[in-house]
C-alpha cells in the first residue's frame, strides 16, 4: 500500500502490528531533515499521522475508511542521524471517531516527539461521493 506514496518517499516502514500498538520506522536522512541538519518536525508529523491512520484502518470494520481530521505534535528532542521509531496506541476507538496517541523515539529510546491524531470513520461509499 505504501509504494509510490509519501511513506515511500520518506522511507517510512510499518514494522510490527502488536498487542500494544502499531510500530514503524523512518530514517533521519536528507529527505527527512530540515536545512540545519535536524529531523524536520513535519517529517515527524507525517510518521505520526501515517502510523495513527494505518492503526485506525486496521481497527475499522471492513468497508469503512478512516480520515484524519486533526493532528498535533510536540517536538521534544533534536535528532541528526539514525532511525526514529514510532508507536501508535489507541486512546479511543469508537464506531465513528478514533483518537490515537503516537510516540516517536530515537535509537536510544529517548522521546523525540509525541503526537495525537483524531480520525473520523466513514463508510467507503460515503467517502467516494
Written account of the structure:
With 129 residues, this protein is α+β, with helices and mostly antiparallel strands. The protein has a single domain, classed as Hotdog Thioesterase (Thiol Ester Dehydrase, Chain A, Roll), CATH 3.10.129.10. It has helices at 6-10, 41-59, 124-127, and strands at residues 13-18, 21-28, 64-75, 82-93, 97-105, 111-123. Strands 1-2-4-5-6-3 form a six-stranded antiparallel beta sheet. Strand 1 (13-18) and strand 2 (21-28) form a beta hairpin. It starts with 5 loop residues before the first helix and ends with a helix.
Per-chain topology:
Blueprint (H helix, E strand, L loop, with lengths): L5 H5 L2 E6 L2 E8 L12 H19 L4 E12 L6 E12 L3 E9 L5 E13 H4 L2
Antiparallel strand pairs: 1-2, 2-4, 3-6, 4-5, 5-6
Question: How much strand content do the residues show?
Answer: over 45%
H-E string: HEEHEEEEH
Assigned CATH architecture: Roll
The number of domains: 1
Tell me, briefly, the overall form: globular
Number of strands: 6
- Taking pLDDT < 50 over at least 5 consecutive residues as the criterion, the unreliable ranges are none
**End-to-end separation:** 22 Å
Number of helices: 3
- Please state the average pLDDT score: 94
CATH class: Alpha Beta
- Helix fraction? 10-25%
Oligomeric grouping of the chains? single chain
**Compute the gyration radius: what is it?**
15 Å
Amino acid at each position: 500500500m505504501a509504494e509510490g506514496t509519501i511513506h515511500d518517499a520518506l522511507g517510512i516502514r510499518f514494522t510490527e502490528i502488536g498487542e500494544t500498538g502499531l510500530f514503524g520506522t523512518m530514517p533521519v536522512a536528507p529527505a527527512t531533515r530540515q536545512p540545519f541538519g535536524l529531523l524536520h518536525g513535519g517529517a515527524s508529523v507525517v510518521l505520526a499521522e501515517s502510523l495513527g491512520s494505518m492503526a485506525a484502518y486496521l481497527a475499522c470494520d471492513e468497508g469503512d475508511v478512516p480520515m484524519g481530521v486533526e493532528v498535533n505534535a510536540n517536538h521534544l528532542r533534536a535528532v541528526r542521524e539514525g532511525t526514529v521509531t514510532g508507536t501508535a496506541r489507541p486512546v479511543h476507538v469508537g464506531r465513528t471517531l478514533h483518537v490515537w496517541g503516537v510516540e516517536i523515539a530515537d535509537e536510544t529510546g529517548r522521546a523525540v516527539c509525541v503526537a495525537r491524531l483524531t480520525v473520523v470513520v466513514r463508510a467507503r461509499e460515503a467517502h467516494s461521493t
